[in-house]
Amino acid sequence: MAKTESGRRPARAMKTTYEKWQEGEKIPVLKAFFVDDVMKVGLEPWERMGGKGAFIDLAGSENTNGVYLCEVPPGKALKPQRHLYEEMIYVLSGRGGASVWYEEGRKQTFEWQAGSLFSPPLNAWVQLFNGSGSESARFLAVTTAPLVMNLFHNLDFLFNLDYRFTDRFNGEEGYFNQAADPSPEGWWRTNFVSNLGTFQPRTGEGQGDGINRGVGVQTAVFSLAESTLGAHISQWPIGTYKKAHRHGPGANIILLRGRGYSLLWPEGKARQRIDWHPGSLFVPPPQWFHQHFNAGSEPVRFVALRWGDKFYMGGVFGHEGVGTDVKEGGNQIEYEDQDPEIHKLFARECAKSGVHVEEEEFWRRRDP
After folding, report:
1. How many CA atoms lie within 13 A of 224 on its CB side?
2. What distance in Å separates the CA atoms of residue 172 and residue 191, rounded to the nearest whole number?
3. How far apart are CA 221 and CA 293, in angstroms?
4. Among 116, 25, 120, 127, which Cα is nearest to 72's?
5. CB 143 within 8 A of CB 66
6. 333: helix, coil or strand?
7. Which of 177, 203, 221 is nearest to 311 (CA)?
8. What does the longest C-alpha to C-alpha distance in the chain come to?
9. Distance (Å, rounded) from C-alpha 368 to C-alpha 357?
10. Angle formed at CA 233 by CA 272 and CA 198, multiple of 5 degrees
């Protein structure tokens, strides 16, 4: 089915199983290309969860993964949940704890705070608690629910299957301890990251697997709970920007620090611009080139919650070749090959903020 230039597909006559389930949950469903601030999205009481919530359907996800927001009331706990779709949880505000279990007597309990990232193991019970008696805690979750629900179209199976994936989680102690060191390839295999805002990424211009994304880019890549979803944080300095690249759907980008903008475009089409700041959320549409620019006064950092875990489903949905030059059949545009107007625009934006651009860094060609 053809797409419009906004990245959205034309309306369908029939609703999917996931869309019908969303309607039945009776909370807001925000459909958008870009969300300016996830902390300002309105939430409503969510009976299933025992808190407040809202769904976010972003055009670039193409119904492969989905987003929801949820708040844990002050001094309260959410209802225990179990489901046959995978989930990554990023804590936006507040502090508290979580318990995960297959058997009541073998619960794993850990504490979380604003900036924490974790993934409940598949089909295990999970319950979140608010550690404050006066303030709500808000988190954002990315799930594989759209894909799984539409594939099986049987909610009873997805929510009431009594099967334990003990190859992923078997109640072992320390399951939610943060990994101290990356693998030799630069990936952290862990089930809990205490604070993405302070986590130290790798030095150098890589993405944990040899990808050179541009001047001064630092990255940490996470594989969580043996999930098919993955995550990475990316940080780059003042007065710099990342190389344009493209990939498949479902890379949910949340800004953690800094201000700037992104350009997004389908090959051969006009570029669209979005301006972002901490709390902004967007998903580049599949196979659209996109490029991220730091025009502010501090380093930028974002987290991408996405498909493409290194160990599982690393090459599905068009997430391969993202670091290979387009001239070599890949999906990345090198600085020297980009439209000159892109750099000119960046220089003008930096001048507005009084930010210096180190010109020669961008045109230093790669080693042969």
Report:
1. 30
2. 12
3. 20
4. 127
5. yes
6. strand
7. 221
8. 62
9. 26
10. 125
Sheet holding 300-307, edge to edge: 34-35, 281-282, 252-257, 300-307, 229-236, 218-224, 187-190
Q: What is the pTM of this model?
A: 0.92
The answer to whether 179 and 169 have CB atoms below 8 angstroms apart is no
The pLDDT tens digits for 307-344 are 877 777 655 565 666 778 999 998 999 999 999 999 99
Question: Under the phi-then-psi rule, with left for phi > 0, alpha for psi from -120 to 50, and beta for the rest, what region is 313?
Answer: left
Q: What is the mean pLDDT of residues 297-307?
A: 95
Show Cβ contacts of residue 301 under 8 Å, excluding neighbours closer than 6 positions.
196, 197, 233, 234, 235, 255, 256, 257, 258
Which residue pairs, CB below 8 angstroms and at least 24 apart, start in 98-103? 98/126, 98/127, 98/128, 98/129, 99/125, 99/126, 99/127, 99/129, 100/124, 100/125, 100/126, 100/169, 100/175, 100/176, 101/125, 101/171, 102/164, 102/166, 102/169, 102/170, 102/171, 103/171
Which residue is associated with the tokens 């629910």? 145
- Which residue's structure tokens are 């967007």? 282
Per residue in 215-224, pLDDT (tens digit) is: 889 888 899 9
Cα 206 from Cα 212, distance rounded (Å): 5
Among 71, 4, 66, CA closest to 31 = 66
The C-alpha atoms of residue 29 and residue 143 are separated, in whole angstroms, by 15
The total number of residues shown for the chain amounts to 368
